[in-house]
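pinning this so it doesn't scroll away 📌
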Amino acid sequence: MNWKYNLGLKFKDIAQKNSNKLAIIIDNKRYNYKYLENKSFKVSKYFMNNLKLRPGDVVALDSTKCIATYIFLIACLRIGVAYVFIDPDNPKVRINKILKSVKPKFFFSKEQKKSNNYSNFVKTVSFKKIISFLNKGKPNIKKDFPSFPSTNIAYIMFTSGSTGEPKGAAISHNNLLNFISWSQEEYAIKSSDKISNLNPLHFDNSVFDIYATLFNGACLVPFASNELIDTKNLLKKIIKNKINIWFSVPSLLVLILNFKSFNKKSFPYLKKIIFGGEGFPKAKLKELYDTCKTKKVELFNVYGPTECTCICSSYKINSRDFVGKEMKRFAPFGKKMTKNFFYIIHKPKKYKKNSIGELLLGGDNVGKGYFNNKNETNKKFIQNPNHNNFKDIVYCTGDMVYKDKNNKNIYFSNRKDDQIKYLGHRIELGEIQQNLNKIKEIKESFVEFRKNNINSGGEILCWLSHSSSLKIIKNKVFKLLPKHMVPGKFIEVLKLPKNNNGKVDRNKLKKLKI
């Protein structure tokens, strides 16, 4: 691949080939590729000439789904400017941590007044202001688009951090070009396809939505967060827009199944349902499979850390996944990773006697590390432990896996740390704990994720003793943590039980009433 070929040039090629074809259906409006190409061209020129943005700079983008958000994203890619999505509903404290970490030149926001409340050290410019300026006339074209290598960063995606500080995974143009090519091959994506954008833009599942769709000439149909609550209306929109490829976390599919919204008439156009980000309870997956098989809708279980460009494995569900012991474990990753990866099941000394080991990922789609965070990068992006002949970086996923001796599939076993997957989000319990420690009214606390069983997931619990009202403490927690990280239950105790080493005694906690 030409090292100077980047995502901006890729989109230009796609837009020219699909000029009059639908690109996005949003807010009951339809936009073709010619529209996206023309608008993103003008915005990118404004970025260069008026805002003096250059390759290697970083900007923050409001993750609210509107047509301007997608236009600005493409404009960034055209000129080699990396973007980071900011969830405007996140607590001000967490947003400021992210902004301070990446030091963006600008924050482009749908609602400037709201963004000014938490970005007092970053200049905020509203989408509306730029678009209004551009609508007055042609952009001032002083410079050609810059040439930059495909190794440049395209976006930074933040994940939970065990130290209490979120970490920004940096993904390059080249990582995404490989990903786009693979997604087209794996799912046979055509310009006639319509693909859902159910995932929030600040959540890494949205990488598939955006890049597998808009950079393969298909049509993207975004859903606002409030459209995911009413499952019947959600499915009506799926049908109305003739969506045939669905990608979401299993939690959303389970919610729809629980409300009995799925039935054999729900799939007049759907061809593929792709799910990932967390384990799919097997009983519910079988319910979905049984509903889908009469309509010949294919189901795919995908896996991949944020640090490795969204997806590393894709496994097609079949009837063998619901026989015997398979009902007691989550769907496998498959027999191997995708073509852009190699994998190692690394077995530390304490695991030498069995087949379980940590999954390490190497290859072209391993990201560039954590942005502006050398310490965490060096911990997780390491030299291949199998040799020292040349530089060969692998990412340590922290996922403990094993390969079944009979069917040769790779299965998830457990985590080597306190990271959990909840509602599709990757959460470090340490980040929750660190933020609770900042609340002066809390004397001591302990956070855990208590699983129910493989078919019903679990919830985040917080045990605490405190010197204030629980209402006041909860209000402070919501100001420090995103909603998905706030414990579902707060259990008040006079004192946390300890073992002989002075650590919280988990066994005694389990015996206490919730």
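📌 and the second one:
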Amino acid sequence: MSRMIKIIGGIGILLIALLVAAVAMLKSMDFNEYRELIAEKAKEATGRDLTIAGDLELNISLSPSISVDGVTFGNAKWGSDAQMLSMDTFAAEVALLPLISGDIQVKRVVLKGVKVLLETNSDGKPNWEFDIAQMENEGEASSSSDGGSLPVVHTLQIRDVSLVYKDGVTGDTQNLSLPVFDLSASSSSSPMQLALEAMINNEIIKISGNLGSTDVLSSNKMFPVKLDVAALGASINLDGTISSPREGKGVNMGFSVTGDDFAAIADRGMMLAGIEGGAPLPAKAFSIAGALRDGDNTYSVDGLRLKIGGSDLGGNLSINLSGSVPGINADLSSEKFDLADVTVQSEGQAAQSDAAATSGTDDGRVFPNDPLPLDGLKAANAEINFSGKTILAQGIELTDVNVSLALNNGRLSVSPLEATFADGRIGGDINLDGSNKTAKLDLKVTASQIDYGKIYKANAGDEMIKGKADLDINLNGAGASVRSLMAGLNGKLRVKTENGYIDSGALTFVTGPLVALFEGEDAKTLRCAVVDFDIVKGMANSKATVFETGGLSIVGEGKVDLRDEKLDLHFDPRAKNASLASAAEIGIVVTGTMKEPSIGPDMGDVAMGAASLAAGVATGGLSTIVGMVVGAASDAADNTDYCALALAGKPLKADEQASSSGSTDSGATTEKKTEEPETNAIGGVLNNLFGN
């Protein structure tokens, strides 16, 4: 036994002696002799030059380490700089005992003062794509194919990294600095812990969390990701997997983003991307969440949930990049969405709008002559379906909204377009063909039983107006601008209401003798109101314009020239009570332009000599004319049922009983019999209508 102990002791002493000798030998070696060999092997692997300017230093211990200063790595031949990478210091610490079994475990790698240049050439080729010389001898097998596993790096620490990215296609340049980058794992099969702090255009971005193991990454298997990101004033959480991490494909990533100020975050994001200005957005808290997935040239967000202010939006959307233009598909819904939560007019925009309204470029027209942005219709193809329970837009509330939009090669179709508004139902179809230089529009909108009394109450707070209306619009035209579209417009517009209620208090211009026309419950009954226009080549002709209560009929005729935006309309009031006929004897004409309409009395209804009228206009204007006007009063009432005619689509012809009292048919209106002047009545009417 003692002899065995002596033998073992001798072997131990021998091993210690050999270890001491090995350490002494290693310490005596000059590892700088291997710099050229290292550079040669690096060039064989990458085709680039590796230069080590400083000394290689070896520290022998239970955790041997090596360090070197002044390392550079060459760029692609076409690169804008000779070096792709340079670093001030590189240090690595290796676990000694695992080396005995051939297991290389790097306990720690430290890089300091790293500068990286990433760029692409004009063809989009990146400089991190190496031109490696391949073996061409078919019979020669690679001896390195079974060379063992890659070294395990437990901790990677990078400090003071400066990264520049140059896009050779667009010419854009981005700068990134990484003050802190720590990546660590206890083993090759353990998850990696990440802590990163980056600065881009003075914006600090912090990322922390867990990633998959190096074994998973090297085998290109399902790679888990769970990260927390703080950037731009927002908090971002990522939790999911990447099935092919080396190619960056097979993404299935849940995400959530929250922030307290949507406007500030968007502004900072645009500045980060190098975009100046931008659309103004509301300063409201928001959150967005969903699952991001990719496929064959497709990206999708499933289970989208967006909340901003008091609004919400959810659903699924995807984009397909395999075609000549992106293809977008979306199915979205909302419980409540207020456009005020996502739009706001900045002070600059308001000032710009005011300046435009008063600038010398105003040509006095309502319809703009700017070319329609038809190219935008060709930028993508899309199929979007949206349903909303409540939609708010500038005080207008729509419920049960259902919209389907299709965009294909510049042709936009919206069908159906459905919503409930003021307890009535709106439906329509819109087709805009922007595939050519001249757009073609086909628009159909119908509305049934819209409660305008409810709308009035919401704005005025009382119930002086009640009733429900129907709307029918059917228009088509072609043009390269809104103005040219309107100039060639064809179709019809019809609005009607029956059995409503209107109080004179709701009509602020009704005072004096005109009030009597609305006295009594029968007089306040709105029997009907009809506006019916036929539109042919930009000329809107009144087919029927009627407003009738129990005590008054107003019959209109005329036209609206959409080509030149000129107005030529006449409204003829008729009392149904003979005692009030004089109060409703003066007609109203609307002339001028749509931009600047002119409203005044119909002088054909005023018993006045031409010379006196001219003198009144020249000396005193409208107030003098009012004082001089002599009404052509009639004691005859007009009991024609204009409502029945207008609703049936018949010509507005006065009945024979009305004609026998001195009126004859004149198309939509009737001529009036001139009696003795009633200056007080007519003068009062004009004064009340047009002021002084």
